[in-house]
Every structure is written in structure tokens, then in C-alpha cells.
Design brief:
alpha/beta, TIM Barrel, 8-stranded parallel beta barrel, 11 helices, 8 strands, binds 2-phosphoglycolic acid
Length: 248
């Protein structure tokens, strides 16, 4: 049975104390949650959050990492440093990093290798823009993002990958994919994974939906057969909203 996961992506929000307070509330309110809970915070909050979350139901993720393990890369953070903090997850390929930091599928393939080499699990994000959906090229585009970012990996590493489909037009816009659109894409993703890795691995791979997921639409989205939880931006910054999504 594949894992049901709800991950919060704080992006570049909350100062350290606000993050600690939010994390404490999430821990307190999710001890009985059946879904795995992950919070993804700015780098400088991670050490404090890992300490807070030790022994709880909540896991901590970084929002990015560099594709090298060490070296002359001023201002960058290595996956080895994240692993050393006791982190379990890193998000790679978020559409904001693809758009604002020119992250390509081939760069992301290297980042995935670097992260996996340090025993981090990767939440690999991808999704189409509005123009790509209007041009009806969204399925092909997602196939390409998966193929170029992921398909160099051996089958036995896929258990360390969580996929996150996030249509760019739904991120932070208030416009959510319909449950039909989400299920259609997730079925497609699982088909693409099956063709490469076989049905057992594809069936066990969690595929999250992200993009304006809220307490009011989470239940409907998560009830789709191939939607295994969500990656939550804005609504993860408010404990009550995030917890109600986790429990949807
Ligand atoms: P949103 O962001 O929930 O605010 O749309 C989702 C994401 O970017 O992961």
C-alpha cells in the first residue's frame, strides 16, 4: 500500500519563532493523523525544526539543495549538510525554482542523484503552465519532466521518491485543478512510471497533488484513486487549515 502524505511548503515565509510556534501546534494536533506529515521550511529554520520533530509524526524537508556535495559554491547548501542535520526529505523541482532559478530537468536529475546519494528522500515536483494546458500539451510536458528528471534512476531507488504534480496555473492562484483533472494527470503519471519501472513500483509510488489545495477541496481531491495526498503552500501557514487538510 502506498503512503498517504500531506506536505506543507512554507516557501520564503515565517521567521524562526513563527515557524517554531507553527510546528509545535502541528505536532500537537496531528499525533493521531493517519497520513504522513511533512513540513518544508527555509534552510535556517531546519535545525530547530528537526529537534522539535524528533520522535513525532512530523518529518522535516528542505525546499532545495545543490547538485554537488561540497566545494566552491558560495551561498549554496549541500544535500550532505541537510542529511547531517537529520533531515529526511528535500523538495526538488518546484515550479518557482524552475521559473525563477532556471532549474532545468537535466540540472534536477543531478540534484536528485546528489540528494539520493546522501540518503535523503526526494519530493520531485513538476507540472504544466496555463499556456501548455491550453495548447493541450500538458500530458506530454509532464511525461518529459518525469523522463528527463527521473528516468536515469535505477528501479530500487524509486522507493525514495515522492512525486508531486503541481499545475503552475493552480499554485497560489486560488484556482484548483478539478478532481477530474487531478485524477486524469495522476493516472497518466502512474502509466508513465509503469512503462518504465513496472506496475509494482508504480503502484507503490506516492503521487501528491499541489496547487491551491484547501480545507474545502482537499477531501474531494484526496478521494481520487491516484491522488495520494497533497503538497500545500499557502494553507500550510495556518495550523488549523493545514491540520484540517491532513485529516481531510
Ligand atoms: P499553494 O502552493 O498551495 O499556495 O497553491 C502549492 C505549492 O507551491 O507547493
Amino acid at each position: 500500500m502506498r503512503q498517504q502524505i500531506v506536505a506543507g511548503n512554507w516557501k520564503m515565509n515565517l521567521n524562526l519563532q513563527e515557524g517554531i510556534d507553527l510546528c509545535k501546534t502541528i505536532i500537537a494536533l496531528t499525533s493521531d493523523a493517519t497520513r504522513k506529515v511533512i513540513i518544508s521550511a527555509p534552510y535556517i529554520h531546519l535545525a530547530s525544526l528537526v529537534t522539535l520533530c524528533k520522535g513525532t509524526n512530523v518529518k522535516v524537508a528542505a525546499q532545495n539543495c545543490h547538485h554537488e556535495i561540497s566545494g566552491a559554491f558560495t551561498g549554496e547548501i549541500s544535500p550532505a549538510m541537510l542529511a547531517d542535520l537529520g533531515l529526511e526529505y528535500v523538495i526538488l523541482g518546484h515550479s518557482e525554482r524552475r521559473a525563477f532559478n532556471a532549474e532545468t530537468n537535466s540540472l534536477l536529475a543531478k540534484k536528485l542523484d546528489a540528494a539520493l546519494s546522501q540518503n535523503l528522500k526526494v519530493i520531485y515536483c513538476f507540472g504544466e503552465t496555463l499556456e501548455e494546458r491550453k495548447a493541450n500539451s500538458h500530458l506530454d510536458l509532464v511525461t518529459q519532466q518525469i523522463t528527463e528528471g527521473l528516468f536515469h534512476l535505477e528501479a530500487d531507488t524509486i522507493k525514495n521518491i515522492v512525486l508531486a504534480y503541481e499545475p503552475v496555473w493552480a499554485i497560489g492562484t486560488g484556482e484548483t485543478a478539478t478532481s477530474f483533472q487531478a485524477q486524469e494527470m495522476h493516472t497518466h503519471i502512474r502509466k508513465v512510471m509503469t512503462a518504465k519501472y513496472g506496475s509494482e513500483i508504480a503502484e507503490n509510488c506516492s503521487i501528491l497533488y499541489g496547487g491551491s489545495c484547501k480545507p474545502t477541496n482537499a477531501k474531494e481531491l484526496f478521494s481520487q484513486t491516484d491522488v495520494d495526498g497533497g503538497l500545500i503552500g499557502g494553507a500550510s501557514l495556518k495550523a488549523t487549515d493545514f491540520v484540517s487538510i491532513i485529516k481531510a
